[in-house]
Design goal:
There is one protein chain. With 385 residues, the chain is α/β, with parallel strands linked by helices. It contains 17 helices and eleven strands. The strands form two sheets. A seven-stranded parallel β-sheet has the order 4-3-2-1-5-6-7, with helices on both faces. Strand 1, helix 1 and strand 2 form a beta-alpha-beta unit. Helix 6 packs across helix 15, helix 11 runs parallel beside helix 14 and helix 16 crosses helix 17. The longest helix has 18 residues. The radius of gyration is 20 Å and the shape is globular. It starts with a strand and ends with a helix. The structure holds NADPH dihydro-nicotinamide-adenine-dinucleotide phosphate and magnesium ion (MG). The site of magnesium ion has 4 residues, from helix 7. NADPH dihydro-nicotinamide-adenine-dinucleotide phosphate binds next to helix 1 and helix 10.
Amino acid sequence: ISHRRISVLGATGSIGVNTLDVIAHMGGPEAFDVVALTGASNVALLAEQAKAVNAEVAVTADERRYHDLKAALAGTGIEAAAGRGALIEAAGRPADITMAAIVGMAGLEPTLAAAANGGVMALANKECLVSAGDLFIAAVREAGGTLLPVDSEHNAIFQVLDPAQKRAVERIILTASGGPFRTFTREQMAGVTAETARRHPNWSMGLKISIDSASMFNKALEMVEARHLFNVAPDQVEVIVHPQSIVHSMVAYADGSVLAQLGPSDMRTAIGYCLAWPFRAHMPVERLDFAKLAQLDFEAPDEARFPALRLARQALAHAGVAGAVLNGAKEVALDAFIDGRLGFLAMAETVERVMEAMATWPSAASLADVIAADAEARERARALL
Ligand code: NDP
Ligand code: MG
């Protein structure tokens, strides 16, 4: 593979750190020129990463940390920048590959700026698709880019969905681990803290997505993400609980065949797939040993204990800005849960009440529509806290 220019948005996060590991494993400076690395609070790590790969520019989204970043990069020749405008500018610099791994709706505008470049968009930030799916996909397409999903389920589906057979797809089957509270009653879930909710049984991920996995809001977002990525009808998106997280997702075809992608619970497989695409690279991940696995279990999801799944169905049915509303309300409720201001079960209750309160579901015709819907959902959610 020849030298390619790559930017990593959200470099200091869980996906970002794994991406830099994959870049190093795939040849580092022999294979890649790193354009922009971005972070927010963790400027010490950001500066260290930028020096290790000799990035062109390092950006923190947090303006107050500019001087720390600048000082840490003094004498290196690496540009330091800070603030939302600088983040969007750096994200838009020409690159052949962008890893979009900022967490939450905060990632939408920087990722859109990167999408305008064309090139490969390795998308981890699912909120881009949940909030602004049609717009985001149109932006990538108009720029002549290629959208590759990093989210393990969607990456799995991408791997087994032959575009030539698209018309024969009957169902997209997303697997869900069920999270740490898979067997909990609602009474047991009522008192859990962020500390227990973040302990995912199989995956090591950022704080917010780990808690979203426990509430199954992560799967709810992934249902909307799948609908946009694979352009299927809402009732073609199915969820099945699979506690071992070995089958990363499946596609069911009209002839009765079901194709699945399997692998270890290590994001470097999906990240490496996107960075090596259309080829495959060696990845230093654990190999599956089927004799040791012995058993793979599947069970129906329980929407009574995990109402997030039901809310996702509603968002899919409403379309338009419903995804932005679901996500905006969820982000506010999640922050409140992390801060100890809201109970675990109250997260879904808050989102449900916000969705019920929305009088109309405008179409998501422009970025302004999406941003307005997101803001309204956040305001309504905050009022309920
Ligand atoms: P982390 O919380 O670990 O990292 C988030 C990154 O975004 C960090 O670099 C963080 O900077 C940065 N960031 C935080 N807030 C802002 C902001 N307001 N503006 C700009 N940058 C900001 O998240 P993950 O790596 O776990 O997840 C990233 C995305 O990938 C999410 O959308 C998640 O849903 C998705 N994803 C993650 C998976 C995983 O395995 N982790 C799997 C599938 C999808 P800093 O840390 O310096 O503050
Ligand atoms: Mg996932």
